[in-house]
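Comment thread on ticket #2218

A.B. wrote:
> Attaching the input chain for the structure job we discussed in standup.
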Amino acid sequence: MHELVIRAPNHLGDLVMALPALHEARPDAVITPPGLVSLIELAGFKPIPYETPLKTARNLRELDVHRGILFTPSFSSALTFALGRVKERRGTDTDHRGFLLTHKVDAQLLEHTHRSSVYWLLATGELPTTRPVAALPISSELKQEFEKLLPVNHKQRRIALFPGSNAPARRWGADHFAQLARRLADNAQVIVFGGANERDLTSIAAGDVAVDLGGRTSLPLLAAGLATCDLLISNDSGPLHLAAAVGTHTISLWGAGDPARTGPPAGHVVVRDRRLPCLECVKNQCPRRGRGYILPDAYMECMHLISVDDVLTSVNA
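C.D. wrote:
> Ran it. Output below, let me know if you need it in another format.
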């Protein structure tokens, strides 16, 4: 019998923000998307790769789970636990799924709560007194494996760039990152990270001055690589949270998002232009067209207002 199984978030950044709650709850197993299994293992938990709702429910019935906690807000995840005969099912009453839960948490009470604190509440039943902060130790062996990907370098400082994001509205732009890389490369080794589907972005951002590791790192190697860097400059993205968790200072570029709910921990730098009334729209695709409030073009005005000089000011602060 498994006393507790937790359904982990589906995205890298959310999973990193959930790590403190997972460590506090100490589940017997964590259901997670296949692409994030290696991170669950790196954090010291037993993963159950999520398949379809029916297959995952069958696995849960075989495990005879007493308690289940849903960090995901979807109807399908609650249905999976119900079909899996999980005896106690706790989660937010989102996506019309309240009748599938035995312990409901009112999602409206959490609208202005940082996501890491939401996960803590779901795991423990109480909001934390201070915001939980993830910590993910990286072994020296994994760091040494990462170093094999890099050319010989004698510069003392190492700066990582991440030009990607799952949400197009939250990308500063590969051309901006390319300008930034050129201005940083004289005094630092610049490394550009990205997934296999972001190689076009990383190639542009790296140009001929930075190391392009787009699509060349597994998730554990990405964590190790970020841990070897002095600084990460990133869009609002999963690697932003991963870098903070492995102890690397970050500068993040924000437009259509809400750092109060999904931003990095205190001490990390958030760069954004606060003049627009549409900030924190949290839309993945910018809906604006026509003339902007400040710039000639309204489309993604929040990101275009951030200049390379703005970022360099934060780097040199």
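A.B. wrote:
> Thanks. Noting for the ticket: The chain has two domains: 2-124, 140-316.
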